[in-house]
Model the fold of this input.
Amino acid sequence: MLDSLITSKTRLRLLIKFFINENNHSHLRGLAEEFGESTNAIRKELNNLTEAGFLIKQAEKNKIEYKVNTLHPYYSNIQNIIRKYIGLDQLVETVLERLGNVSLVVLTGDYAMGKDSGTIMIDIFGENLNIEYLKNLSLKIETIIHKKVEFSIKSGDPDPKGLVLFKKPE
Done:
């Protein structure tokens, strides 16, 4: 639905890249390679988003790095819209519904890096988790959000590049 509102596929991919995880940053050539598009198309959209204040440009050696402006007044609104577009809100809600004593849900893989690859990877930390429910959950969520979902039960420390979607209050 968001792709009918934001008709530029490049702009939508950039919004996903930067707003899904505030730690994501990149430069023009890296984005062109990642998206498989020309540097001119990427440059145009980066300039538009930078002029609007959504992205920040920083000189990094002899490259310009772009990252999201977390101080922009619409930052949290756009981040929520992007996460809903991907389906992360429904995913977390469904995981917490009947899985058991979940302490942490972490987005890893391509989506944590802002790459809209179609496969969402989720690490789940907790005790006494309902593994049978988790097996059926992937199919249920895939029909809701129209993306492939892979769950992993983990223990220990979460992936430092991952994005924490839920943390149980202590």
Q: What stands out?
A: The domain at 2-77 is CATH 1.10.10.10 (Arc Repressor Mutant, subunit A). The radius of gyration is 17 Å. The mean pLDDT is 88.
